[in-house]
Specification:
Elements lengths: L1 H20 L4 H34 L10 E4 L5 E5 L6 E2 L9 H11 L11 H14 L9 H9 L6 H17 L2 H11 L6 E2 L1 H9 L8 H9 L13 H17 L8 H6 L14 H11 L4 E3 L4 H18 L6 E8 L4 E6 L27 H10 L8 E4 L18 E4 H6 L3 H11 L1 H10 L25 H12 L3 E2 L14 E2 L3 H11 L11 H4 L6 E6 L5 E7 L3 E8 L11 H16 L15 E6 L13 E6 L12 E7 L4 E3 L9 E7 L3 H10 L8 E2 L13 E4 L5 E4 L6 E6 L6 E6 L2 E7 L4 E3 L5 E8 L4 E10 L1
Parallel strand pairs: 1-5, 3-4, 18-20, 22-28
Antiparallel strand pairs: 1-2, 6-7, 6-14, 8-9, 10-11, 12-13, 13-14, 15-16, 17-18, 17-19, 21-23, 23-26, 24-25, 24-27, 27-28
Helix pairs in contact: 1-2, 3-9, 5-6, 5-7, 9-10, 13-21, 14-16, 14-19
């Protein structure tokens, strides 16, 4: 007590001194000094409770730890998915903005009219309740404020006088640490609604299937009366009792001026159609994926566009039903906003709740063979390396790369074909040739920059089969690759959540190469256009590429315009292949449906050629800058200082005798009696293909046999067997094929085994031999005197 008097003395003494200095009348001064101790006592009585409260607050702090359900929200805040709280409650996190003003006004009027005016305890309400309870000899009126109710919800305890006193103290503590808005929000979030439902937001979603901001007056009144008796006012069983209590309070609310009288009649008549429902379960695969990462967060805000997500889910579900006819049961789709790299729709499977076909497997992250979907990256890299321009001709003929002999999807060959047509037709051999010229590691490094991780791609494990799907890739990895093309060759990570950090973009290919690939992939004169009129009646303006894995286990179709990139995978999670499964016929129709639903005819601006691109004239036969003999020229895009300046030599001048039966070189051309003729200068692989396919072509006459000059053309290229390989053969029975590609003008070849001549034959004749030793030297010489040697090993059984 003495300590408290000492504390208040510095407050009272200056006041007393000031009064004394004013020379007040003696009677006043006497009265004042005789009662000065009363002032100190009054101040003491005011300070003691405050000091005791502060001490109590420090000794027994009030902990407010609410375990909310985790909710996954769309970009505009709509609930996509929700998970029970740690204590198995549907208790959704919310702010006051998540509740309708009508609901807040009704609850304040009903539960605590003076909420904003008391410090947590309302003395007037306590006095009124005590008087009424004594008068009626029973508990007929309560005095609990909203703050006290929040305490009771946070710290449930039996209703005794002692607990009531504790509740009042805790209410003062709550008001000491929290604002009125925060306390009101806690109240709304903790209200009991029966079972494991707590909070008006959860009740609105589970009972009325709508956000708490969209409640009608009658619905808001219903949610205001249920918490008083959550067991007896069970919304699934006691609808009539709820309506009766609701209507009673609606009339009180009109009388109290909370709601307008003109709204009463409709509110009283409004039926109560609520029933226990489930929360939204959109984007379940993405929700589960994010929940595993951020499960400790109450709210995980995604970049998903809810309307787009629901459309995509419906289209995928409907399309999946059509696929069951060919024994295909799974698919996945991803929609990306190119400008922000935000994922706007995410479909991991057509039916998450389908246990028979593993519906809970996430097809967006599953690693599968990408088929031909990596080809655009290879062509873009080849453009940047100066190897090709769109009109550069590539030999599409059978080829063998040290034992790897790829084939085109349709098992046919085109001969010479432009790079743009080879990509548009998705030919395999030109893509593998470009990969060989680039070097596999060039593409491996670009895939690493694109953050391909699911397929085990590495310098050590990857080979030329990478061009045809000889690796693993996920739908999200491929979608990011094509979004990179849409963004002018700049790559950024996909963004799934609003909290994702914006990563600095990385340049993977040049803007010019990206534009040229987009131009090629937007062509509609191509084999991967879906068959059937219904697929092409509304063909979207997009660039797209398809892919089909070996064994027809995976069908891909990925497309983009300048606004969105959409990726689709179709197949079976079991890995079962289906003969009818191709990217063109099974994945592309869904791709078109998604584009037509989301961006059809929206006036999107198409890609423009960047300043880095220029146009030049090239020879139509080779795609190279024209030589002196080239007559047919076409315009072609190129990258200055990057694209090759090698001149075209597809035509050469050949000196020959009068009847064109013999040709001459500069060393043996006679002084007269000959003529000069312009002829096509084909490569050895094209000549061999012409011969094998028996295609007509103009042959350069046999060179003058009496000429002793050594030619500078390429020596024979032995394509069978393969240099350095080991062959296991049946003893005395097994035979190996000898085959070589030779230059123009060569007619005969000479085959040697261990330096012993075994055959002189036409350049395209098939020769077989039986090895007799474990190490074999094979030599092929042409009739120009050029020779090639290889070595193989053999084993016999």
């Amino acid at each position: 007590m003495l300590c408290m008097m000492a504390l208040i003395t510095p407050i009272t003494e200056p006041l007393l001194l000031q009064l004394n200095n004013r020379k007040l009348p003696v009677i006043v001064t006497v009265i004042y000094y005789t009662r000065r101790w009363l002032i100190k006592v009054v101040l003491l009585l005011a300070v003691i409770p405050l000091v005791l409260f502060i001490a109590f607050d420090n000794l027994f702090p009030l902990e407010v730890r609410i375990r909310y359900s985790t909710i996954i929200t769309a970009d505009q805040g709509e609930i996509l998915h929700a998970y029970l709280s740690a204590d198995d409650k549907w208790r959704l996190p919310a702010s006051l903005n998540d509740y309708s003003p009508e609901l807040i006004k009704i609850l304040l009027h009903k539960e605590d009219k003076y909420f904003y005016y008391h410090p947590g305890v309302n003395p007037i309400a306590i006095g009124r309740a005590a008087f009424q309870n004594l008068l009626n000899q029973r508990r007929s009126s309560g005095a609990s404020t909203i703050t006290m109710q929040v305490v009771r919800l946070l710290k449930p305890a039996p209703r005794t006088w002692f607990n009531k006193i504790k509740e009042s103290i805790y209410a003062l503590q709550l008001e000491w640490h929290f604002s009125k808005s925060e306390i009101l929000n806690l109240y709304l979030n903790l209200l009991p609604y029966g079972g494991n439902i707590e909070g008006a937001r959860a009740a609105a979603m589970l009972y009325f299937g709508k956000p708490a901001t969209k409640l009608s007056i009658a619905e808001a009144a219903s949610l205001a009366v249920i918490p008083n008796r959550p067991i007896s006012l069970n919304i699934a069983k006691n609808t009539d009792a709820i309506i009766k209590a609701r209507n009673k309070w609606l009339q009180k609310l009109v009388a109290g001026g909370v709601i307008e009288k003109s709204l009463l009649a409709d509110a009283l008549k409004e039926p109560l159609t609520a029933k226990r429902a489930s929360l939204s379960a959109a984007a379940p695969h993405l929700a589960n994926r994010l929940y595993r990462i951020y499960h400790s967060d109450s709210v995980i805000k995604t970049n998903i566009d809810l309307a787009m997500q629901l459309k995509a889910e419906q289209l995928c579900a409907n399309y999946a039903k059509r696929l069951t006819a060919i024994d295909v049961h799974n698919l996945a789709a991803l929609i990306i906003d190119n400008g922000s790299m935000k994922v706007k729709a995410y479909v991991g499977s057509p039916d998450f709740n389908d246990p028979i076909h593993a519906g809970q497997v996430d097809g967006v992250v599953a690693s599968r063979s990408p088929g031909s979907t990596l080809k655009p990256l290879i062509y873009a890299a080849a453009i940047d390396a100066g190897i090709i321009t769109p009109h550069t001709k590539i030999a599409d003929v059978p080829v063998n790369f040290n034992g790897y002999a790829p084939e085109n999807f349709n098992a046919t060959y085109s001969g010479l074909i432009s790079a743009e047509n080879a990509l548009a037709l998705s030919l395999n051999i030109p893509a593998v040739k470009l990969l060989q010229q680039l070097g596999v590691n060039t593409i491996v490094q670009k895939l690493k920059q694109l953050q391909f991780k699911s397929g085990g791609i590495s310098e050590k494990n990857s080979g030329l089969s990478l061009a045809l799907g000889g690796c693993g890739a996920s739908l999200e990895e491929l979608a990011a690759l094509y979004a990179m093309l849409a963004n002018g060759g700049k790559f950024s990570q996909l963004s799934y959540t609003a909290s994702s950090r914006t990563m600095k973009s990385t340049s993977i290919i040049s803007e010019g190469a990206a534009y040229l690939i987009s131009k090629i992939l937007s062509s509609v004169q191509r084999p991967d256009l879906p068959t059937g009129f219904e697929s092409t009646i509304r063909l979207p303006k997009i660039a797209w590429k398809t892919g089909t894995s070996y064994g027809r286990r995976d069908a891909w179709s990925i497309g983009y315009n300048n606004k969105y990139t959409i990726a689709v995978w179709v197949g079976n999670f079991s890995g079962k292949g289906v003969p009818e499964l191709t990217g063109a016929d099974r994945a592309t129709p869904l791709l078109f449906e998604l584009f037509n639903t989301i961006t059809y005819n929206t006036g999107q601006v198409w890609f423009k050629p960047p300043a880095a691109l220029d146009i030049r004239y090239v020879c139509s036969a080779s795609g190279l800058p024209p030589g002196n003999l080239c007559t047919n020229q076409i315009a072609d895009y190129f990258l200055p200082l990057k694209s090759t300046n090698k001149k075209c030599n597809h035509l050469i001048e050949v000196a020959m005798n009068a009847n064109e039966s013999m040709s001459y070189c500069t060393n043996c051309t006679p002084s007269n009696g000959y003529k000069i003729k312009v002829m096509e200068n084909h490569s050895a692989e094209i000549l061999m293909w012409y011969e094998q396919e028996k295609l007509p072509y103009v042959k350069i006459p046999q060179h003058n046999e009496s000429c002793n000059r050594v030619f500078l053309h390429q020596p024979p290229k032995i394509v069978s067997p393969i240099n350095g390989k080991t062959y296991i053969l049946e003893k005395d029975e097994g035979a190996l094929l000898l085959a070589a590609q030779v230059a123009a003008g060569v007619s005969e070849v000479y085959w040697y085994i261990n330096d012993e001549l075994i055959k002189v034959c036409d350049k395209n004749e098939k020769v077989f031999f039986k090895p007799t030793t474990e190490r074999v030297k094979i030599s092929c010489a042409d009739d120009k005197g050029l020779n090639t040697n290889i070595y193989i090993a053999t084993k016999f059984y």
